[in-house]
Amino acid sequence: MLKDRVITAVVMAAVFIGILFFCPPLVFTGFVMLVTAVGAWEWANLCHLTNQRARALYTVAVVAVAAALMAMLYLSQWLRVEQVLVLSCAWWALALLWVQGYPTSSVLWRSVWARMIMGALVLVPAFLSLVHLRSFPEGHWYVIAVVLVVAAADIGAYFAGRRFGRHKLAPNVSPGKSWEGVVGGLVAVAVIGIFFALFRDVKVGVVLAVVLPAALVSVIGDLLESMLKRFRGVKDSGHILPGHGGVLDRIDGLVAAVPIFTLAVITAHGFW
Q1: Rounded CA gap, 149 and 144, in Å?
Q2: DSSP state, 75?
Q3: Which 8-state DSSP code applies to residue 178?
Q4: How far apart are the C-alpha atoms of 8 and 10, rounded to whole Å?
Q5: Which of 137, 174, 218, 264 gives 20 to 30 Å between its CA and that of 159?
Q6: Could you tell me the pTM of the whole model?
Q7: Predicted local confidence at residue 243, as pLDDT
Q8: Which of 100, 92, 130 has its CA nearest to residue 265?
Q9: Could you state, in chain order, the average pLDDT of each consecutive group of 10 residues for the chain (272 residues)?
Q10: Are 190 and 222 in contact (CB under 8 A)?
Q11: For residue 5, what pLDDT is reported?
């Protein structure tokens, strides 16, 4: 199992870095769209869509919405990516309330249609955010930065939770997570952010204002998927990645963090 996890992680990292740094932006967009499609396929199962045709139709619908919104952002004079990102922030605030209120909150989202809409609200803004982030000058480094932020928050939370974890974060959703783990993850991200700011000679406060909210929301993304899996009665979102489960199991924190990170980068762009 450990061998499979390591091999899969190395292959995923190599493919991702190769496409991000050595392929044209259009190829990166196609890759992110493919990951979004796989994520939608797995989310369909969390919606209790067990029929293969229904899952395929849902996947096509999510991809179509993502592609249509991307086209509108490039062609429309009235729709801007910031508007989509602000709506995404509002969605994750609502998701936090639902996670905190589980299982009582399930009365609000337990229907198949509600969970299908939830999947679109999770996956589509994440797709648009990554594509937009890559479009910046040196945008590939922004993409790497948000991935590292989520990874640092996850690793910091794991070790801090194991050592100091006493107060449960969301016992009805993920009993292993603690408030001490969240603090440990934020500390890890803050340390990395401070070193980056000093190394690049940019304002520490601005860097922390970008990375800390993204790290915090990544926790909500993790908890939201855990809540859906617990409600659905499954351990993993899928089995496509040997030793890792499904794609959603690996990107649940990232899909939550990247819209907030992208909005923060846009907002802070004049303060670097």
Answers
A1: 9
A2: H
A3: E
A4: 5
A5: 264
A6: 0.94
A7: 63
A8: 130
A9: 69 93 95 97 95 97 97 89 95 96 96 98 98 93 96 95 92 93 97 91 93 97 96 88 81 96 90 63
A10: no
A11: 67
Distance of CA 208 to the CA centre of its chain: 19
- Residue 112's alpha-carbon distances to 45, 61, 69, 105, in angstroms, are 10, 15, 23, 15
User: Closest by alpha carbon to 170, among 64, 95, 67?
Assistant: 95
E strands present in the chain: 168-170, 174-178
From CA 263, how far away is CA 86, in angstroms rounded?
8
Cα 60 to Cα 37, 123, 128, 269, distances in angstroms:
7, 13, 16, 35
Looking at residue 27, the DSSP 8-state letter turns out to be H
Q: How many CB atoms lie within 10 A of CB 205?
A: 12
CB-CB contact of 66 with 127 (8 Å): yes
Q: Name the one residue in this structure whose structure tokens are 């499609």.
A: 37
CA–CA dist 92, 89 (Å, integer): 5
Judge whether 119 and 43 are in contact, CB under 8 Å: yes
